Amino acid sequence: MLKMRIEEVRPGMVTARAIYDSDGKVLLNAGVGLKESYIIRLKQLGFPALYIDDGVSMGEAVNEVITPELRIKTISTLRSAFTKVENNTRIDAALIKSAANVIIEEIIANRDVLVNVNDIRNYDNYTLGHSVNVCVLAVVTGKSLEYPPQKLRELGVGALLHDIGKMKIPTEILVKSDRLTPEEYELLKGHAAGGFEILRGYEEISALSAHVAYQHHERLNGTGYPRGLKGTEIHEFARLVAICDSFDAMTTDRIYKPGISPSKALQTLESLKNFQFDAELVNAFMENIALYPVGSMVVLSTGEKGIVVDVHRNARNRPIVRLVLDKQGRRLADFVEIDLNKEHALSIVDVAEPKADLWEGREVRHGDPPAQSAG
Ligand SMILES: [Fe+2]
């Protein structure tokens, strides 16, 4: 399985994961040979990338922090709540709280699973998918900080709803790919205080959860908004959600630009430690993230390239890699699997964007999965 930008996807390639529309319905199942018309449609729907079967590592199951089904279910719960806010009607706070609880329970049950950044969203469900991810990242970190259940619940609800104020911001601003004008930026910034206003109208929602919405754009050194709070003036939950929010925004693929790799996003967070972000919380956050998620392509110190097929909890920079290209970029005939945690002379020096010609010379015929045409 390999993540590939949609512009590199060609007819005949085979999907490695199901692709869902914004209502959680399956658009394409895993294992489907892509036709030109499907690719055009997926582009129109705004999917920036796809998981493609690389022909050698078929059917591998990735251990995920929460199941795709739970992700989709939570997105649909959030969608109905967010739509209510847009229409100025009251949300069912109990439903949101129970959605957060299910996520917490699943994360507690799934011991020690690393977060593999892997959801692919189109612009229809950007904010919804982002909210679920931020909740997962926050709860995973809260768990490693040994938060008691009540604290996790307040954090989880706050994280799920941190951007609820965006429902009051014009969609053109939210989806704009160009730089915002100063006026537009001011409007966008209003989502923090706006979200707080909405949430404090619910006595079932804790004031701490509401403050996550209010303070998630504040920065440790006072450079954030809306109030320019500093240090511990910002509640710990909001300091944590700020990290999760920034990480998810950096790593998310957009139709107009790919996200940066988790390893690079973590370097950025690391460099902003003590300035914008709380150092202790960044450290706790980083422990739980796969630096090179399953399905990403990496460059080894030998110049060879390979696909990450599994990760190690205790050696996050040393995953298991299946070599696919030699140092000249030629496709290797045999796919050697290397466990970098055992091959200490080798290391990962960079990440790479897989190109369409990865299968060149392998007689990929229209409608044929690459696996079947492997010589
Ligand atoms: Fe936000």
Task: Write the topology of this structure.
Layout: E1 2-5, E2 19-20, E3 26-28, H1 36-44, E4 49-52, H2 68-86, H3 93-109, H4 126-144, H5 149-160, H6 171-175, H7 182-199, H8 207-215, H9 236-251, H10 262-272, H11 279-286, E5 297-300, E6 305-310, E7 320-325, E8 337-339, E9 348-352
Antiparallel strand pairs: 1-4, 2-3, 5-6, 5-9, 6-7, 7-8
Bound molecules: fe (ii) ion.
**Radius of gyration from the alpha-carbon trace, in angstroms:** 21 Å
- Measured between the Cα atoms of the first and last residue, the distance is 19 Å
Overall number of domains: 2
CATH topology of the largest domain: Hypothetical protein af1432
Oligomer: single chain
Mean pLDDT across every amino acid position: 90
What does it look like?
The chain has 375 residues and is an alpha+beta fold. It has 2 domains: 2-62 and 294-373, Molybdopterin biosynthesis moea protein, domain 2, CATH 3.90.105; 68-286, Hypothetical protein af1432 (Orthogonal Bundle), CATH 1.10.3210.10. The chain is 38% helix and 10% strand. The chain has helices at residues 36-44, 68-86, 93-109, 126-144, 149-160, 171-175, 182-199, 207-215, 236-251, 262-272, 279-286; strands at residues 2-5, 19-20, 26-28, 49-52, 297-300, 305-310, 320-325, 337-339, 348-352. The chain has a 5-stranded antiparallel β-sheet with strand order 8-7-6-5-9, with no helix packed on it. A two-stranded antiparallel sheet has the order 1-4. A hairpin with a 5-residue loop joins strand 2 and strand 3 (26-28). Helix 7 (182-199) runs antiparallel to helix 8 (207-215). The radius of gyration is 21 Å and the shape is globular. The structure holds fe (ii) ion.
